[in-house]
Amino acid sequence: MALILNGTTGISGTNALTGVTGINSGQIGGRRNIVMNGEMKVAQRSASVTGLGSGSGYFTLDRYRIGTNAASAGRFTMAQVADGPAGFANCLKLTVTTADTSIAAGERLIITQRFEGQDLQQLNKGTSSAEQVTVSFYVKGNAAALYVCELFDSDNSRSITQSFAVTTDWNRIELTFAADTSDPLNDDNGNSLEINFWLHGGSTFTGGTFAVNTWNDYTEANRYAVANRTSIFDATSRTFFITGIQMEVGSTATDFESRSFCEEYDLCKRYYYQSYDLGVAAATTSNAGSVMLNVITGNSFRYNIYFSPSMRASPTMTFYNVEDGTAGEMNIEGNGGSNPEAIAITFNSPKRAMLYNTNIGIAGNYYFHYTALAEL
Amino acid sequence: MAINSVQKVNYLGVLSSYKMVEDGVIKSVPLDAGNTDYQEILLWVDAGNTIEEAD
Asked: Is A27 part of a structural domain of the chain?
């Protein structure tokens, strides 16, 4: 195959890089995907959790937050499952287990990934050189459906939305979002931007006018106001599968940038880490991965836990008795969880937590598990 | 997630963290404005709730 190098139009020819004038610059070169865990490889907390829908939080796959605004009757299972289009081993699957067709105004269900502003400065948002952003992902469902993908600027309360269709087959959705020359993102470790996948919403979020691919100071009623939208809670047969999520600078959805498990795991550990093995839910009775410290004499201990990589902010720490899973304590070895002792933290930083107790009752070997949470 | 209670935890007489009980689970929250649980505690206080003194 002949390749023609042209400094203006790029490399032309079969399967050419049209419009790309160099392979070491722009979106074709280097690390492109801003999304973490886009291939749904990492699920520290659990591979599957049932009965979700009554509250928000992180439950299974790392970095993916479930958002609900008011208690819905709808319930679902969120799981990492071995399914995907060619080249993808896993996806995130939602399976509705309780339908909700009487939708209260404030209900919503969104899958969200949040990003630090310091990781988004290449978007040039809020400047005359602001960049377009392209979001791509693979989806399928049990039946045809229409949902919404939103970029939400948390620093400035601005929003841009586009709808996408789901069929029973895996399809890649490619959405290029307009550049925003208003309101720059903060250059810090706070939550600056969210990708939101809207799957359900009450009139609070649907009562307005849907704006297609236009940045606006957000109006709650417009966010899921697209015509012919689907509520994932309309039937217990509903499923939603998604994987291969990519967000990149520019107007082209390039091939998905696959990263190793280790790379993705390290990225995720900036926001959450647990001493339990991967996929073992906190509070499980398990010794694997637990921390042991020995109180030889006296009635106190100090113990440092170092975080690698450093966490986004000083994390909230939750400690668990290894032998019975009780939160807020450690247990003495071989005592069936009895005679537990409390653990407190001090001088915390994103790099290290110092644990202590100055009132230990019994000397001996103590065990505990912990979670460290610094999500956005 | 609902905060049940928040209590100061002192280390050598100095406030070192908060002991937060959320949905019945005891958590140690650092004094870091970037921590989302710390932010939630501030909102919880703004809503009229009170942080308990240390034991």
From this structure: no
Which residue of chain A comes nearest to B38, CA vs CA? A316
Q: Does B36 touch chain A (CB under 8 A)?
A: yes
Say whether both A240 and A365 belong to one domain: no
State pLDDT tens for residues A117-142: 999 999 999 999 999 999 999 999 99
For residue A343, the chain B residue with the least C-alpha distance is B28
Model confidence over A230-262: pLDDT tens digits?
999 999 999 999 999 999 999 999 999 999 999
Its domain, for residue A229, covers 48-269
Pairs from A24-27 (Cβ < 8 Å, separation ≥ 24): A26/A250, A27/A248, A27/A249, A27/A250, A27/A252, A27/A254
CB distance B35–A316 less than 8 Å?
yes
Decide if B13 touches A, using CB distance below 8 A: no
Nearest Cα residue to A123 out of A21, A64, A195? A195
Cβ A356 vs Cβ A376: under 8 Å: no
> What is this model's ipTM?
0.94
Q: What is the pTM of this model?
A: 0.92
How many domains in chain A?
2
Beta bridge partners of A141: A240
Match 């939550």 to its residue by tokens: A191
Candidates A248, A116, A128; CA nearest to A185 is: A116
Domain boundary, last residue among A247, A269, A291: A269
Which parts of chain B register pLDDT below 50?
none
Q: Give the pLDDT band of residue A3 (cuts 50, 70, 90).
A: low
Closest CA to A360 of A333, A335, A337, A332: A332
Going from the C-alpha of A235 to that of each of A75, A202, A328, the distances in angstroms are 11, 16, 40
A346 vs B: CB within 8 A? yes
Indicate which of A69, A318, A346, A354 best probes the interface with B, i.e. most B CBs within 10 Å of its own CB. A346
Residue A335: give its domain's CATH number. 2.60.40
Identify the burial level of A24 via C-beta atoms within 10 angstroms of its C-beta, where 0-12 means exposed, 13-18 middle and 19 or more buried.
Answer: exposed
